[in-house]
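User: Predict the structure for this protein chain, please.
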Amino acid sequence: MSRLHHGGRLREAAREYGIPLEEWLDLSTGINPNGWPVPELPASCWQRLPEQGDGLEQAAAIYYGSEYLLAVAGSQAAIQLLPKLRKEGRVGLLQPSYAEHAAAWQRAGHEVVALTPQTIEQGISSLDVLLLVNPNNPTGEHFTREQLIAWQQQLHLRGGWLVVDEAFIDVDPAWSMVSLTGEEGLLVLRSLGKFFGLAGARVGFLFAWPLLLKQVARELGPWHLSGPAREVARLALLDTAWQAQTRDRLQRDGLRLDALLRSMGLPPSGGTALFQYLTQLEAPRLHRQLAEKGILTRLFDTPCALRLGLPGSDEAWQRLQQALQRLSTTREAS
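Assistant: Here is the predicted structure, written as structure tokens:
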């Protein structure tokens, strides 16, 4: 089975373009480039087996707004497991969206139905599961709570599920469905990878109803989240001052990236505070030309598009701007 492509494959790019790893500017992931500052951890995090009761679940319940949760080793752990907990059926997903979702449901024998935001309403009556990334990755579409509640109610009448992946929602958490979890039929995934910039810790949460959470916990087994990861996540979730400052900064930076791309004749077709999305036929060439200058972006084939994350320093912003200016001059000359 072929491996799905993701952003962040920096070593592969370094080999392909012959540029040393440390010289790259990685804009391919949509991860906060100035993540939560991890402190030195106590030795007990490394020496003892991880266990509940360390305050992580309590911190998560406060931050997210629901106690109906299970800590998992990144939302990917839940993405791979959830399709195995339903009998085979029809699962609606946006196209394009985060590809791991479709792959996991297909592996479990489900029929995956490609949707657009405009076709969800007319197609939902034939679905057993509707899975939406909100805001969508990579296109940036948002769905309101009112829309999601209406779709969840329709699905629930037939024993169906609404699964919402909120990996990129932390900058504007008012859109979140987490506070409505606890009743059967609504599942929400959250992660510390994007907003908190802690992708390497592999910490996520599944919010659902108690019976499903118990079933998932049994399937995952004990110690599926390491002690150091649990402690880092607990501290980050409690740091409300950093969270407020970071939301303000990311919103400003998201607007800055949008404005920069527009000024270079590359208007985004969508995006969030953490990334911008460009659909255009020139995407492969732009991806290659930026990579030749040591700037890694995320290339998509269907449709032909680029996703650019945020630079993390003044130097990185200047480097991106200068590279785009040179490319713009080249395009005009040709």
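The longest strand covers residues 186-191.
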